[in-house]
Amino acid sequence: MAMAALRREGRRFAPLISPRPITAVRSSPIAPSHQDEGPIGVRYISTQVVRNRMKSVKNIQKITKAMKMVAASKLRAVQTKAENSRGLWQPFTALLGDLPSVDVKKSVVVTISSDKGLCGGINSTSVKMSKGIHKLNSGPEKETKYVILGEKAKAQLIRDSKKDIQLIITELQKNPLNYTQVSVLADEILKNVEFDALRIVFNKFHSVVSFVPTVSTVLSPEIVEREAESGGKLGDLDNYEVEGGETKGEILQNLAEFQFSCVMFNAVLENACSEQGARMSAMDSSSRNAGDMLDRLTLTYNRTRQASITTELIEIISGASALEG
Amino acid sequence: MLRQASRLLACRPKLAARARPFSTDLPAADQTADATFTEAWSKVIPNLDPPKTPLSFMQPRPPTPSSIPSKLTVNFVLPYASALATKEVDMVIVPATTGQMGVLPGHVATIAELKPGVLSVHEGNEVTKYFVSSGFVFIHANSFADIIAVEAVPLDQLDANLVQKGLAEFTSKLSSATTDLEKAEAQIGIDVHSALNSALTG
């Protein structure tokens, strides 16, 4: 957003470059209301205007630099947590595999996004992926619903998919993320939403500059049974002895719920990391742009200042030569 | 032990005769699973790259060896850390809902839910004990054990006084509980605290 504002400022200057022949120094783009017509048709801008612009751009630069530092420190905090939680979903994938192309009647897409903006394009990527999965899983008897975490995805999805949204959860990061909070959230979703397959869409954190959109699939116990019976990837699930509980179904139900909360926990942490990383790089390029803009404005300012000095000199000299001659 | 031995005798020839079990199919399978997904995606949404799936971020598990390996490879994970990651041990004893279950290399593939209790890891002569709150344990046919617990603490970090206080508190809550939910919560509290108690004393 800051970058867009800066670009707009640049564009406002561009079309106002004067095409008229100028004997004195050509001054750079000006706002019409501050033009002064000097002798010999010279147009120059009041230095006050340029100075105001310079002050505001410098402030923007300071703010974006500060935001970058804040994002860097928050990233450090969340990154260790996210990396530690990466072991959590691996046993489930080792046991149950990953079947993103499973054919189910009711899919629910859980989109994880941030509440605050100025974080680059990660929320738009998540929303695009969610919409893609929705399209992939729509058909004659199939339906896809959304569960949204975060304000930014809500804003984008509410415009065209309002009727498909089941649940919206915001202000996730008000308190530091922990497993208890996420498991309560997972419980809410499981209670209120009917699903055959849950597809969690988030940005996986690879490095400060690389975030990979990822989709994790969690199947409901009935579908797990169905896939196990039909053979294929889950065919060997039947070989596993199930200890405890009255029925195998009960254990599989608990397993599915536990899997969902673990995968959600990891997903939410990874998305938080990606958000901070993206914000860092967005604010960094913002401050760099502000710096470039400031350089250009400084040149304009100096040119304007020198132009006015030159004009004064010319007046004096021509006045003096008129007196002599 | 006897139970495992009889199961092993029954299951081993079956394992050898059949095609490789699930965990070995990961490297090849992840291509096919991803391939059907990527194909379907590129048909419907041609302009975007498809999102990645967890399989591409995981190391594939080794296949089931034909003879029982000497060590059990244990992954003990918690939401906040991986307490043990692919550690080779001799035996682990897990507190399953059906009682303490000993897991040795070559154990039959099992999925078990855990109840609050003591998990002990035996490596050579040293035994490390943790109190786990609950979770799941998956034992795969290739002598890999995945233990996923919600909370686990080494036993020396438990305070006996607080355990007793907690137990008394939850017992009184159970007697004064009115709704089913309150009763269930109080019962859970009692179960955990009595398990803590027996862990400290036993």
Describe the overall structure.
The complex is a heterodimer of chains A (325) and B (202). Helices cover 56% and strands 15% of the residues of chain A. Chain A is built from 8 helices and 8 strands; from the N terminus they run αββααβαβαβαββαβα. In chain A, a hairpin with a 5-residue loop joins strand 1 and strand 2. Chain B has 202 residues and is of the alpha+beta class. In chain B, helix 3 (160-175) runs antiparallel to helix 4 (180-201). Chain B is globular and about 60 Å long. The model of chain B is unreliable at 8-30 (pLDDT under 50).
Number of strands of chain B: 10
Strand content of chain A: 15-25%
Distinct helical segment count of chain A: 8
Average pLDDT rating of chain A: 84
Rg on CA atoms of chain A, Å: 30 Å
What is the spatial order of strands in the main beta sheet of chain A?
5-4-3-6-7
Mean pLDDT of chain B: 79
Strand order of the largest sheet of chain B: 2-1-9-8-5
Oligomeric state as shown: heterodimer
* Overall 3D shape of chain A: elongated
Largest sheet of chain B: 5 strands, mixed
| Overall radius of gyration of chain B | 21 Å
β-sheet strand percentage of chain B: 25-35%
* Helical content band of chain B: 25-40%
Strands, helices and their partners?
The complex is a heterodimer of chains A (325) and B (202).
Chain A: H1 2-13, E1 35-37, E2 43-45, H2 47-84, H3 90-96, E3 106-112, H4 122-136, E4 143-149, H5 151-160, E5 165-169, H6 179-192, E6 197-207, E7 210-219, H7 221-229, E8 241-243, H8 248-324
Parallel strand pairs in A: 3-4, 3-6, 4-5
Antiparallel strand pairs in A: 1-2, 6-7
Helix pairs in contact in A: 1-8, 2-8, 4-5, 6-8, 7-8
Chain B: H1 2-17, H2 26-44, E1 72-78, E2 81-89, E3 91-96, E4 99-103, E5 110-114, E6 117-123, E7 126-132, E8 135-139, E9 144-149, E10 152-154, H3 160-175, H4 180-201
Parallel strand pairs in B: 1-9
Antiparallel strand pairs in B: 1-2, 3-4, 3-6, 5-8, 6-7, 7-10, 8-9
Helix pairs in contact in B: 3-4
